[in-house]
């Protein structure tokens, strides 16, 4: 790895672009500090996977993990939607915030669709393109070839190609470079640790920047997809965008450091620290969810004949912790009058909290649960 060369600057007609070297080759791991970090990351990931296997109704909570990932990954790109806003229905979102809201919802759809598609389609260029198409559907960038690799030059930072911070490779080389990623991902002959493999794939994908828009979000989404596709995680419960967002400058600096100084080891260390911290944080979140579940279950058990209806609402809130009286009635299949009585009970327990302050159209939030993801 000491001999690693990221690529070279290539003179085009009136600008210079970066041409990355291919990554599907034999790799030698010879840095003890990196090996130690890798071992720790593997252990924490194993613990997280164990939690996801033994937590009852894990699917209820995965949706919130995906929603958090979508808000944080989009936030890196400048989108300002927070978790509370992301939980709203479209008609309840302010007009000036709907574009951001739609991008977050598309990320959720892209992640869910991609994970489901893994059952029939391997981690591949086709999967990447289909994921990008869903991500860019009917939002800003919808005219920038959704689901298709670019046919023109793009750049990062700056106003023009000449003052850009980074210019990715020319579009004519994208096919070969993405094909090389595919070969590397499925190369079972030359061993390389899976966590370092996806770290390298993420770096290479962001360097290629194969789409006209949405590269950052797709590249971060691929991390979770890869771990699920390889069976390292049985459920999609590890998302690094929150770590990348909190360390945004380091995230970009370490990616650029690889291109400019061939320092792949520093990027690997940063990535592994992200895996370790994120896995530990996710485990703590699951622990707190289990404690909250136990507390809430004991509270609603005291509701007698309304316990069954309350349980339906609680299960809904674990997936979408914001609700109004109409939805309470629909989910629990009870009358409006019974829905309001149930809301009063859940407010009394501190499970629901009214957040709109109005007399009509009141909205309630399962604040203790939502706070676990904030």
What does this structure look like?
The protein is mainly alpha-helical. The chain has 2 domains: 7-285, Fido-like domain (Fic-like fold), CATH 1.10.3290; 290-371, Winged helix-like DNA-binding domain superfamily/Winged helix DNA-binding domain (Arc Repressor Mutant, subunit A), CATH 1.10.10. The protein is 57% helix and 5% strand. It has helices at residues 32-54, 58-76, 83-86, 98-117, 125-135, 174-185, 194-208, 215-229, 241-246, 248-261, 264-300, 307-319, 325-332, 336-348, 367-371, and strands at 7-11, 16-20, 322-324, 353-354, 363-365. A 3-stranded antiparallel sheet has the order 3-5-4. A two-stranded antiparallel ribbon has the order 1-2. Strand 1 (7-11) and strand 2 (16-20) form a beta hairpin. The radius of gyration is 23 Å and the shape is globular. The mean pLDDT is 92.
